[in-house]
Write a structure and sequence with these properties.
The protein is mainly α. The protein has a single domain, classed as E3 ubiquitin-protein ligase SopA (Pectate Lyase C-like, 3 Solenoid). It has three helices and no strands. About 15% of the residues have low confidence.
């Protein structure tokens, strides 16, 4: 009896995978750009959900309006990068250098941004709702927080809990 149940389960699993390939679920396997030299590349408007960019050099790279939900930018250099209008929900952006980057109108909901550098970063209209930041980062970002995100309707100052 147990053998029949296990066999039926395995057969159903195989048929399900055959009948419903990954494309049917709008799922693409994550792409890895870890440790890559991507200076000046253009990823604007692309869907790169859960892509891995850890320890990559992405100076002056264009990600404008890209879907970057769940990406990993851990330890990466994003100086001067264009991240305007990107969706970085659930992204891992820890220990990244975002000096002079453009995060205007970006969505960073539930992103992990610990120990990242934001010197001169444009955060106008960025939504940091439920993001994880160091206290010193929040104080620094609150000094220049302004605007309202065009898609979420959340004010940058409110998303950072600025006083």
């Amino acid at each position: 009896m147990i053998f029949r149940q296990v066999a039926a389960f395995l057969l159903a699993s195989i048929l399900c995978c055959w009948a419903f390939p990954a494309q049917a679920f709008d799922y693409a396997p994550p792409v890895s750009f870890s440790n890559a030299e991507l200076t000046g590349q253009d990823f604007s408007g692309q869907t790169l959900r859960q892509a891995e960019f850890s320890n990559a050099n992405m100076q002056l790279t264009n990600f404008a309006n890209a879907d970057l939900r769940g990406v990993a930018f851990s330890g990466s250099v994003l100086t001067g990068a264009n991240l305007h209008g990107t969706d970085l929900t659930n992204a891992l952006i820890d220990q990244a250098n975002l000096t002079n980057a453009d995060l205007s109108d970006a969505i960073l909901e539930q992103a992990v941004l610990l120990r990242s550098i934001f010197n001169g970063t444009n955060i106008t209209g960025a939504d940091f709702s439920y993001a994880i930041l160091d206290g010193s980062q929040i104080r620094e970002l609150c000094q220049r927080a302004s605007g309202v995100n065009s898609r979420t309707g959340v004010a940058t100052r409110d998303s950072l809990s600025c006083r």
